[in-house]
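The protein record quoted in full:

***
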Amino acid sequence: VKIAVVDNVTIEGYGKNGIAIASATGVEISGVQFKDITAWADIGLMYADNTGKTTGTTAGDWYKTPVTGVVIGEGNTFGTGVVYSDITPAFAKTVTDYSSVTAEDMYDVAGMETYGYVPVVEKVSGGVQLQYLPKQTVENANEKLAAAVNGVYYQTLEKALAEAEDGATITLLGDITLEGDLATSKSITLDGNGTAKVTGGTFYFSGASTTIQNATFCSPTNASNNASFFYFTNNNVTEVTLENCVFSDPQWEVVQITSTALDKLVINECTFTAANVQNSNSGAYGEGTDKCVRYIHIQPTEASGTTVDNITITNNTFKNCDKIKGDIVGIYFVDGSTMTIGGNKFDGLTDEEIASKLTISWPADTSFQNVSLWTATSQTTMVIGDSTQPQA
């Protein structure tokens, strides 16, 4: 609800704030020209913890409620910028361009964190909206911040994906449970920051380049109970990187890539597990309700084949290989592609059984069924389908 709109005015020559906002929500500021604001800020957002104070400028109820909704719209001309202050200007953060405002810019870390508030800065129609939400209230309502993009914070990964620009990095801020599929046509990096865990749902990526790193993904789901974590089915996809991730209990596969434009695939330092798979057992593979079909599946849609310049599968741990009905790694119709392997670990099956589930090319290029090449500390680079290579 808007309680005030400041639009198309000039504010000049004030000694403290051009516009001061305290204990308010729903203020919109657009098209304002700030000139010669000499002391504090063009826009001053005020807060003070007044508990127990009976004298002075911070006594009583002054500034006791953090500003919870300010939209800084288009067309403003700033001099000193926007400040959030806990009365003492020295603690303030300042920005001069609303279009690049971040939570850090608008957030007095030393003061506001002490008071138990977290920042939410979101793009809205006409600008950016600043809110400070009580941390305990947010946690109690199970509305933790899900993701951040260039300092803009989002309460859902869905909204972060929708509003991120092409090529952006989305940092996951905590554990996330997806209620359905997520899709994007942008080049994106998803970074779990080493701690985030994503449960449920599936991802459909059709941007040119996707990197997924430093996160744990558990138990993808769909309506048919045959979900993979990641689908790259659009022929715009050229580069895919999976780095330093854990993938647990896919119903079908971890990753499925069918793009004919694929030029680079890197899977490094990842762990694959299938100890607690639960699926519909409706697949043509007869996989059983406690087994998935594959961990890695690359199969360009053109049977004539696709040549990939760089396929790298290194330093991964493939657990529960006995729970894989089909191939641990299945890469088909890519003869002539260059592939590097090494540093991988497998458990749950004998080397002979593992070899039978490493299907590179179709029919299988048996030179890639030498398990010792996959597990060696050194890396080996070979060309898929090259009959001059030693065959296992």
Helices lie at 109-115, 135-140, 157-163, 351-355, 371-375. Residues 109-115 form the longest helix (7 residues). DSSP finds five helices and 35 strands in the chain.
